[in-house]
Amino acid sequence: MLEFEIIQNANPMAEADRALAFQNLGFGTLFSDHMAVIHWSADKEWHSAQVTARAPFALDPASSVLHYAQEIFEGMKAYRAADGKVVLFRPDQNAKRFNASARRLAMPELPEEDFLAAIEKLVAVDRKWVPEGNGGSLYLRPFMFANESFLGVRPSKEYIFCVIASPVGPYFKGGAKPVKIWVSEDYTRAAVGGTGAAKCGGNYAASLIAQAEAGKHGCDQVLFLDAAERKWIEELGGMNIFFVFNDGSMVTPPLGTILPGITRNSVLTLAKDNNIAVEERPYAFDELQADAASGRLVEAFACGTAAVIAGIGELKHRNGSLTIGTGETGAVTTLLRNKLVGIQTQALADSHGWLHTIPVS
């Protein structure tokens, strides 16, 4: 396991300035004082682990990430409980998924214990940046990118792993208000054999034009269909999706070309805990429209680390729109969100051992 050098930021944000910024937290625009950094090279492998002042990287114009997009990342959160403890939610799963993404993009895997240590040590140093209450949390962004200076299509021989932290409020500005979704029938996110199951920047870059289209139609997010038939529902631009029926059961698209969301997996477990039957199976957009028209489909929700669980009230598409159930956040969505948030904030018992307490340094 790597030893981390801790170098304190000589010019941290003033306490008064941070307190003022915490009064109106957005998402991903405010950053803590420090970052964790580890380097990899073909001759030394992982080395030079530090927690140091957050600062820009100096990249050569020929840095391979700028040309061949070898880059992966994760998203996770640290929460402050009522007793003052700071906890992470299932960070071991983020470490595993990070390495799965690394394998897909021909990048070196980071030992899970070093991934977790980087998170722990950064949060311990920047503990005061974890918001208290009001739905706030410290969003953590571990990422890795190729940094060898060369022009040639092959894996890089140098990489940088880094973790930055951002105190955040709710992802969607409307709070608990259900979101509107645009169904993209012109653009796709991933195909069989592609990188859909990897958390790499290129997947998100490819979704931005569809997300912009969604914005033009007054929607908060975009829903992608499969690349082969343009028939099967896959996932949103940055979240997984579930559908709830009038018999209390749920359906969610199967893994393969979609991201194996940690929140998605947690929802599946919580549904089982609450005797909610869930099928992981292909669900066609035509089937969804028929179920919405007949009243069989009563709820839908998006889920992910950033948004947690957000009810979906309306779907818009090129031929019109449809309301999901009453158009409001439903009872099953609310139940699962309350269960999940309750565990994350330690308001409810963590019977699955999902929480990881940050040691006090």
Write up what this structure looks like.
By secondary structure, the protein is of the alpha+beta class. It has 2 domains: 5-168, Aminotransferase class 4, branched-chain amino acid transferase, N-terminal domain (D-amino Acid Aminotransferase, Chain A, domain 1, 2-Layer Sandwich), CATH 3.30.470; 179-344, Alpha-Beta Barrel (D-amino Acid Aminotransferase, Chain A, domain 2), CATH 3.20.10.10. Helices cover 25% and strands 29% of the residues. The chain is built from 8 helices and 18 strands. The chain has helices spanning 15-21, 65-68, 91-104, 112-125, 201-216, 262-273, 285-294, 331-344; strands at residues 5-6, 34-41, 45-53, 71-73, 76-80, 86-89, 137-146, 158-168, 179-184, 221-225, 233-236, 240-245, 250-252, 278-280, 297-304, 308-317, 320-323, 355-357. Strands 1, 2, 3, 4, 5, 6, 7, 8 and 18 form a 9-stranded mixed β-sheet that branches. The radius of gyration is 21 Å and the shape is globular. The modification N6-(pyridoxal phosphate)lysine is found at residue 199. It holds the Pfam family Aminotran_4.
- SSE pattern, N- to C-terminal: EHEEHEEEHHEEEHEEEEHEHEEEHE
Residue share in β-strands: 25-35%
Q: In the residues, how many domains can be counted?
A: 2
Distance between termini? 18 Å
Rg from Cα: 21 Å
Mean pLDDT: 95
By CATH, the superfamily of the largest domain comes out as: D-amino Acid Aminotransferase, subunit A, domain 2
Q: Which ranges are low-confidence, i.e. pLDDT below 50, for 5 or more consecutive residues?
A: none
Q: What is the C-level CATH assignment of the largest domain? A: Alpha Beta
Separate helix tally = 8
Query: What is the CATH-assigned architecture of the largest domain?
Result: Alpha-Beta Barrel
Main pleated sheet: 9 strands, mixed
